[in-house]
Amino acid sequence: MSRGGAAIIAPQMTTITRGGMRARLAGDAGDIDAVMALRRQAWPSDRVDPLDAVAGQLMIEGRDGRLLATLRVGLVPALALAGSYSARFYDLAPLAAEGGLWLEPGRFAAAPGAGWEALRLCWAALARIALEAGLRGLFGCASFPGADWQHHREALALLAAQPVPSGALRPGPLASERVAYPALAGAVSDQKVALAGMPPLLRFYLSLGGQVSDHAVVDRQLDTLHVFTCVETDRIPKARRESLRALAMD
Asked: What is the pTM of this model?
C-alpha cells in the first residue's frame, strides 16, 4: 500500500511485560489466526483486509497466554495517507499536506472480560510505538457497533460538544452515507451513559486531546458508525504526555 514512493509499514516495538501480561506484535501465522478469530468475535463481518498484509497486529496476552485484545497498527508517511483505511471514508488531503509520520490504529477487538489491565497495556504499547517511531500523530476511524446513529445518540451528543477541528485536522467529506451528528444528537442528558457508550479507542484519543470529524460515516459492511479521530503528539497536554511516557517504559 503505497503512494508517491511512500509505503504503509508495520511498526517496530519491543515487547512490554507487566504483571505476567504482555504486549507484543504478531510474529507468525498462528498469531494472525488468533488475531482474526478475536476480530471476528467483535466484528462478525470482518475479513482480511489488504492493509493486514502490510500493517502490524498488536497482541495483548493474559497471564495464561490467552489473547485478550488486538489492534491493527500501521505506520503511515504523509505521502501514503491516501492508502490508509481512513482515506476510504474521509478526504485526508489537508492532513497529508502537514507531512510527517503517522500511526493508524484500527480494528480494535477485546475478548469478553478482558478488563482494564488489558486496555492499559494496549495504550502503553501505542505510547511505546509512538516514542520509538517519532510520530507526528495518530489518526483513525473510531467505530461504534451498530450503524444506526440513534443508538449512539448520547455519546454523539458528547462528541458534538467538543471543539470543532480546523485546518489539517478537519477531514473533508468523502463517504456517500454520512451523519451530520452535531445537528442531530441534541444535548447530553447523562454524562456517564455518554462516556460508557464511546468505543475504548475513542476515549483514549479524547484523553490525549484528540479531535473528531464533524460528521460520522455509516459502514454497512461492518454494521458500524464511525468518526475520524486525530491526535497530534506535540499537542498532547504535558502531564498526559509524561504519564504516557512512564506507562510506555518497563
From this structure: 0.91
